[in-house]
Amino acid sequence: MTKNEIVVLRLFNQKIATSHYNTANQVTSWMGAIQAQDYPMAKWAIGLRLPNATDQNIESAFNKGIIVRTHVLRPTWHFVSADDVYWMLELTAPRIKSSLRSRQKQLGLTSAFLSKSNKIIEKALADGNYLTRNELKSKFEKAKIPLDGNRLSHLMMHAELEKLVCSGPVKDKQLTYALFDERVIKKERLTKEEALAKLAHRYFSSHGPATFQDFHWWSGLTIAEAKVALEMVKPVFIAEKIGKQEYWLSDTFSGSENPSGSVFLLPAFGEFIISYKDRSASIVFKEQEKLVFHFGVFRPIIVIDGIVAGIWKRIVKKDKILIEFTFFKTPKKEIMELTEDAAEAFGQFLQKEITLSFQVI
User: Which residues, in sequence order, are bridge partners of residue 356?
Assistant: First the structure.
């Protein structure tokens, strides 16, 4: 297997090159989890995998609680199917909590302090009372809870990891919190071994070809847990080697075409890049990686034939979108045309007219 074959297979397995799914829940379930700290771009991460999807479609599924946004896997927000979020949190929350204890101790967030804050949150959100972050902040301030030193973020993350809260519907264009038990109806209970196997199967099916190190990074599991997870699913996957590196992928791959000449506009923090520890198959030069990954931020990327060829930026106005493209080298005419087509698809997703600008660095 070559690196070119790796990126082609990933385009298909991640449902970027082609997709037969019809709903946001199907896409999110297939992917396992989709990183979502950039909420508008995370909606596009789902939309680009759904033929004829619109931003409104994805937000409708989100508002109905079909997909939820919470801290899971690594300590950041992800979109997760409501059908999966319970067992996934049961599996990964302990590891995230452990990683946060040192900072919580520095902030004086004792068990008693966190218990008090949870009671305030629970009372404020009871009976479907969806509140924004600022509205909850005012509840803490009224109760004389100190919020300096980024305490509010830690209080809310702790509540998410405790399965007390998760995302509520958008209210006046702002994200809200809801009580987890009021939002998540299906609470599938799995043994730890069952959950490990299920998470590994989801990852290698949707993200393969991928290495053990990739899975360990994406999942947030300990090395020991990740090894157990991979061992349990090895019989249903195949291994391919490049040098000494072993890649795992599904043996039921159905994609049959190399998407030669393909152009995709992928979102900030997109799974095509961020879900792998080793990103060298798609990011060819180190200097390009610095442009894609900048001070902890993964920018939206232009992907040509599976290779990162530039970055892009959207400026959303009332009825139009300006998309600024920055290529790493001058693209051919046919690539420019395909880029314009990809931009048009993004405009259709947002249901807005688009204008474009191009530069090369």
Answer: 323
